Amino acid sequence: MSTSAAINGKEIFELLREDLAAIEREFGRDTVSGVEAITEIGEYLRAGGGKRIRPMLLLLSSKLFAYSGRGAIKLGAVMEIIHPAPLVHDDIIDEAQTRRGRPAANTQWGNSKCVLAGDWLYMQAFKIAVQERNFRTLDTLIELTQQMVEGELLQMEKLGKLISLDEHFDLIYRKTACLFSVCMRIGAILGGATVEQEENLAQYGRDLGMAFQIVDDVLDLTASESVLGKPVASDLREGKVTMAVIHALERCGPREREKISTVVREQAFDGVSHEEILEILNRYGSIDAAQQCALQYAGLARNAICRFPDSETKRALLWAPEYVVGREK
User: What was the pLDDT predicted at 18?
Assistant: First the structure.
């Protein structure tokens, strides 16, 4: 089968439909606790949906090697449990009111319960992973969790500050791309990949995750609140500097730089409007530069898997970068 043949999201969903449904059921079972608040918060997070791109990547990675065991379902659910756990903590730290168009969990159950529920979800994910009796997988998940926690702490240290592009890329690797990379790596481990194949798939996940987060950051600046499901320019309101802003800061004049600095430092659009910031970014082509960077990462992701034999699964993986850079929310 030629990898140049067209494939779309509907075809990929059909390819993975039964496995994704099984992961959804597993997620529902695995987040049930004897403590009512934990079960309620877990169900609330599960019902919030999302793109389920992370378990899809794990499934596709394992399917490249014709893996058909139950481990991909169990570990796909693990990744879906790990993914929202830090988001619960993020919303508390950022004092967020909404998440995906719904009230953030902390506004429903309070900070204390949500912190503990997030901790419980992490521990539950590792409890399930241990049942697979695969030390490579456990090592990978432990390293992932450390990277994510370190990323959150580093971001807290840099809130309200004008950081470099290298610092920003390090943050988005730890907070987003590392999780994508680990999903691909775990699928490769399950499938019995060679060291080279595993590294290629991990690289694919890293580059795809970088593209995903850069696009996410651009959408935060340019999309409408109704599309985002949260206030526009939330990153700047929280004192977070993203790629388009860094690009503009490297090129703009002192007065424009001061406008951006004021918003970042004060973590508010009080004296400077969102429209003024957007005008500066567009003046220096900063939005376009960020989108081009995302496209470059998407191309690197495709290149990382070019040596794998043609198959329906490879076609799906080649389509994913196109989806990531083309999405509108």
Answer: 93
Nearest to 300 by CA among 222, 225, 208, 230: 208
- The structure's pTM equals 0.90
Euclidean distance between CA atoms 99 and 43, whole angstroms: 15
Give, in degrees to the nearest 5, the angle at Cα 282 between 278 and 286. 100
Reduce the DSSP state of residue 218 to 3 states and report it: helix
**CA–CA dist 322, 312 (Å, integer):** 16
pLDDT level of residue 50 (50, 70, 90 thresholds): low
- DSSP secondary structure of 142-158: HHHHHHHHHHHHHHHHH
CB 52 within 8 A of CB 5: no
Greatest pairwise CA separation for the chain in angstroms: 60
Q: Give me the helices (H) in the chain, please.
A: 9-30, 36-47, 53-63, 71-82, 84-94, 105-109, 111-130, 135-158, 165-172, 178-191, 195-222, 225-228, 234-237, 243-249, 254-266, 274-283, 286-304, 312-326
> How many angstroms separate the CA atoms of 257 and 240, rounded?
15
In angstroms, the CA 80 to CA 29 distance is 12
Whole-number Å distance between alpha carbons of 78 and 129: 7
Domains of the chain (ranges plus CATH)? 9-326 (1.10.600.10)
Residue pLDDT, tens place only, 127-174: 999 988 888 999 999 999 999 989 988 998 999 999 999 999 999 999
Token readout for 85 is 């756990």
CB-based contacts of 84, cutoff 8 Å, min separation 6 = 45, 48, 50, 121
How far apart, in whole angstroms, are the C-alpha atoms of residue 142 and residue 148? 10
Using alpha carbons, list the distances in angstroms from residue 142 to 147, 183, 240, 285. Answer: 9, 13, 27, 40
